Amino acid sequence: MQGLTFDNRFVRELPADASRENRPRQVEGAAYSFVDPTPVAAPRLLAHSPEVAGELLGLTEAEVASADFAEVFGGNRVWPGMEPVAACYGGHQFGHWAGQLGDGRAISLGEALATDGSHQELQLKGAGPTPYSRRADGRAVLRSSIREFLCSEAMHHLGVPTTRALSLVATGDDVVRDMFYDGNARAEPGAVVCRVAPSFLRFGTYELPASRGDRPLLERLVDFTTDQLFPDLEGDRDQRRSDWFAEVCRRTAVLMAHWMRVGFVHGVMNTDNLSILGLTIDYGPYGWIDNFDTNWTPNTTDAQTRRYRFGQQPAVAHWNLRALALALEDLLPADALESGLQVYVDTFQAAHARIVAAKLGMEDCQQPDTELVQELWTLLQRGEVDMTLFFRALAAVDPASPDPDALRECYYVDETFVAERDGLAAWLDRYAAALGRLDSDSRRARMNAANPRFVLRNYLVQEAIEQAEAGSTERIGELLEASRRPYDDGPEIARFCQKRPDWARVKAGCSMLSCSS
Ligand code: AMP
Ligand code: MG
To answer: Which residues are CB-neighbours of 309 under 8 A, at least 6 positions away?
Structure first.
């Protein structure tokens, strides 16, 4: 790993915790604490992303396969140039201020200089306790690590802003988890994922010093962010701060539009899980929409109020941005914060309108709340229709003679299709009439570029997890491969582009997940 060089701006520019004591505690006046990963029994590389390793970080396949790599990215060795730290942040969890949270099981190794000149923070998740671990063990189980590893790469290839994943390393240690919170804890294999992003700063990073009235720290964090992470901002300091907030709002809006486009449900949109860079971050009990259902949440902890349900995500992002705005209110003028929040609303509306138009193969759609579109959402929701299959099948429908039977396969219950068939036929006629001037080929190409054929369905990952727990990483490799070309029509990935099978309907891991990861 000779080519891996580091420039640790975060550590260099921001104040460190004076104590090096690795026990749970409140950390004040500091952006992070120095803490080394806790060694594991037998680190073994299970999977890696060739794009992140090779293209982004310039590592050769031989380097990735070396014993050094598994040692370093399993947490047993600190490579020259790395300065491991856990970041200090707070957050609103399920709408309530939770105080200090911080990296309880994530340890950032350093900021690698990437092949494109960017800084890329390499962060181990599951690397052992930190001062922010509270009562937990700092570890991650294999199942949740596989989910994060695969999904971050799948999201990248779908064109959704996200943190990336370099590697998945089995630790050889057991981790004890009570998956259903029912008193039946069991030992599971542990793992460590190395995540990669220009920064892992979150909304909660700024909320914590604001809540403590620590204005000096808050200002240093904001200045670090504007200067280092948003170098394109122009003007004096106050201008850059205002433009920065508006840019965070803009990026968050774009991110929400993408999640709604591909049917991704984050599951835990607490403010500590929203990236200041507008990336999808912290893959926990996330899930993918099979049958279109705006009320669905993958998170068992959220089953009662469904705060983080699919259809609610754009509104929650706005709520979270408002929490961020409140944290910044001493630093930015009120009108800058208000206009930033308006940027969120306007950007989301415009991006969502563009996306709906693209999903439907229309040239443009000024108002995604037109009757035609609203009726479609109702049809999909009521009919228990597979969202991903539906939009790909719709692209193949001939507007000259739209045939509802071409969409039959997308319904989870055939009797429902039969009952809904007339309504669907009437909608298809109106849709065909509204399509406008695009010829069939352009329309289909436009739709197939907006509507993925492959998404990382919950049951697919669950199968990969079960195989991995039984000793085979083959399916992880196959899914990683399939996720590289999610919009392709080819036969290679056809077996992973099917409706959720019946057995997966209510199975744990395929329908809902707990936070016990
Ligand atoms: P999450 O909502 O999963 O992003 O986690 C919320 C907080 O709990 C963060 O501060 C995490 O670092 C912390 N946390 C979650 N799991 C663990 C664990 N196994 N050990 C220590 N801290 C954890
Ligand atoms: Mg988190």
So the answer is: 265, 294, 295, 296, 297, 302
Note the pLDDT tens digit of each residue in 298-313: 988 888 899 999 999 9
- Angle at 95 (CA atoms; ends 91, 96), nearest 5 degrees: 65
Under 8 Å between Cβ of 208 and 89: yes
Q: Is the CB of 133 under 6 A from ligand 1?
A: yes
Q: Using an 8 Å Cβ cutoff, are 87 and 204 in contact?
A: no
The model's pLDDT over 389-436, given as tens digits with 9 standing for 90+, comes to: 999 999 999 999 999 999 999 999 999 999 999 999 999 999 998 887
Q: Do residues 75 and 186 both lie within one domain?
A: yes
Does 510 fall in a domain?
A: no
What is the CB neighbour count within 10 angstroms for residue 342?
A: 12
Catalytic residue of the set 36, 103, 243, 272: 272
Ligand 1 contact, 92 CB (< 6 A): no
Residues 248 and 350 in one domain: yes
Ligand 1 mean position to 432 CA, how many Å?
Answer: 49
User: Do 355 and 411 belong together in one domain?
Assistant: no
Check residue 178 and give its pLDDT. 87
Give the number of other CB atoms < 10 A from CB of residue 231.
Answer: 8
Q: How far is the CA of 162 from the centre of ligand 2 (A)?
A: 14
273 lines ligand 1 (CB under 6 A): yes
Strands (E), 256-329: 264-265, 287-288
Give the residue whose CA is nearest to atom 6 of ligand 1.
101
Residue with the smallest CA separation from ligand 1 atom 2 is 268
Which residues face 33 on adjacent strands? Answer: 86
Q: Is 372 found in the same domain as 409?
A: yes
pLDDT recorded at residue 57: 98
pLDDT at 368: 65
CA of 485 to the centre of ligand 1 (A): 32
Do residues 138 and 194 share a domain?
Answer: yes
Grouping H, G, I as helix, E, B as strand and the rest as coil, residue 380 is: helix
The residue type at 508: A
Task: Give the domain-ending residue among 173, 199, 225.
Answer: 199
Tell whether 55 and 152 lie within a shared domain: yes
> Does residue 445 fall inside a structural domain?
no
Q: How far is the CA of 329 from the centre of ligand 1 (A)?
A: 28
Evaluate whether residue 514 is within a structural domain.
Answer: no
Question: Domain ends where: 303, 331, 359?
Answer: 359
Query: How many structural domains comprise the chain?
Result: 4
Q: Which of the residues in the chain have pLDDT under 50?
A: none
**Looking at the whole model, is its pTM more than 0.85?**
yes
Q: Is 272 a catalytic residue?
A: yes
With a CB cutoff of 8 Å and minimum separation 6, the contacts of 18 are 30
* 368 lies in the same domain as 272: no
250 and 381 share one domain:
no
| 24 close to ligand 1 (CB < 6 Angstrom) | no
pLDDT digits (tens, 9 = 90+) for 84-139: 999 999 999 999 999 999 999 999 999 999 999 999 999 999 999 999 999 999 99
- Ligand 1 in reach of 148 Cβ (< 6 A): no
Pocket test for ligand 1, best of 26, 101, 201, 266 (most atoms within 8 A of CB): 101
Q: Is residue 449 part of a domain?
A: no
Q: Which domain holds residue 175?
A: 9-199
